[in-house]
Amino acid sequence: MEERGWKMGSEWTSATIGEHFDLVNGYAFKSKDFTEKGVPVIKIKNIKAGYFSEHHFSYVLPKFLESQEDKIAQSNDLLISMSGNRHDGSPETWVGKVAHFKKTKNYLINQRVGALRLKKEGTLDARFMGYLLSSWKYQEQFIAIATSSGGQANLSPKQIFGTTFEYPDLPEQRAIAHILGSLDDKIELNRKTNETLEAMARAVFKSWFVDFDPVRAKAEGRDPVRARRGESGFAPNLPPEILNLFPDSFIDSELGQIPKGWEIKTIGEVVEFAYGKALKASNRKTGTVPVFGSNGPVGLHNEALVKGPGIVIGRKGNPGIVTWSSKDFFPIDTTFYVKKIGNISSLIYLFYALKDQDLPSLSADSAVPGLNRNMAYMNNILVPSDKVLSAFDEQVVPLFKKIDVNDDESVTLAALRDTLLPKLISGELRVPDAEKFVEEVGL
Fold first, then answer.
1. Is 351 helix (H, G, I), strand (E, B) or coil?
2. Under DSSP, is residue 105 helix (H, G, I), strand (E, B) or coil?
3. pLDDT at 229 over 50
4. At the top level of CATH, which class does the domain 207-391 belong to?
5. Sign of the CA dihedral running 233, 237, 238, 243
6. Residues spanned by CATH 3.90.220.20 within the chain?
7. Burial of 251 (C-beta count, 10 Å sphere; 0-12/13-18/19+)
8. Is the pLDDT of residue 10 over 70?
9. How far apart are CA 286 and CA 301, in angstroms?
10. Class of 15-167 per CATH?
11. For residue range 269-304, what is the model confidence (pLDDT) as tens digits?
12. Between the CA atoms of 255, 380, 332 and 314, what dihedral angle is there, to the nearest 10 degrees?
């Protein structure tokens, strides 16, 4: 008998999705329903290939938790994108992406997002099914059965319910899910660690260049170790050699009071927003170079357009979004990338200073929103002294390097997960052998 999975002779059962799952369709929120804060709404963009992305949420008021109670995502739901592209777009935009949802707080589901929910426990493991249905085999199957309308592919509940799949017994499902899940758990831990590191770097920026804690401390004769509550919340705790780099008084400026001796320049005097280059998803070749769109990374390529580290700014579609690349990168034609032309030495300072600008409000073009570069150039930006900027880099560059190391590790772990996934699901690789691979990476 053919060997499948980790147990000799293990039989895999065939079933349809409709036999084991109900499908909850999302709610068609109106544009006027969305607010800046509130209950996060899961949109198609939050469903990635195999994972749930907690970035760039839209929000609605809590009242919708009562009026649309049946549209609340539940832990162990499998979220599926019911509209999207076929192979002509980036995998991030494909129809039929599936992600295992394991959050316990309240999230509402938007239209064209489906939540596959197990009808009963004891036969299928939800996490295993998330990996199974997000594998290449089923991604291809969902794309193939989707119907086209208005330039996009759509899946109906009937099409999803009719999709057949094979699964092993529950212990083997859980063993496979555990192996792949241990890799995903480490990736998630790296992500959370990086959020903390980035918050630390951001706190230094805010303390030094927004709240001016060191300058205020010197001007008021206070102990600079004790930051006042209600400002940055970050205690400078600066040694004398760094504290002495800061002035001890303020002057009036177009930006309000700024530290004495620091300057005000326009953005156009210190940087150029250079145009990215067209690169269709179909023309991208296998590689490790991140490709950036207006909303951040959109894939990989084998060639870089810009030497990193660098800053990318959304130009079309989602204008004004500022993202960072630690490596050489390829910004596509919906973006600008930042070229230093003035006397601000710290690229990380520029990154945070540009994020603090309200660039999204400077959009033009009513049909397709776009950042007006010339208007952005007219905005003012604070230029601290070179010595303070050098000290800032000494504080935050090590944090960014740690972030980069964690990102590299996560890329390696994701590659291992994506290699093991089809082999485990097809039965080509036994669970004990897969466990050895995972042990070799220290998990």
1. helix
2. coil
3. no
4. alpha beta
5. positive
6. 15-167, 207-391
7. exposed
8. no
9. 6
10. alpha beta
11. 999 999 999 998 778 898 899 999 988 888 889 999
12. 40
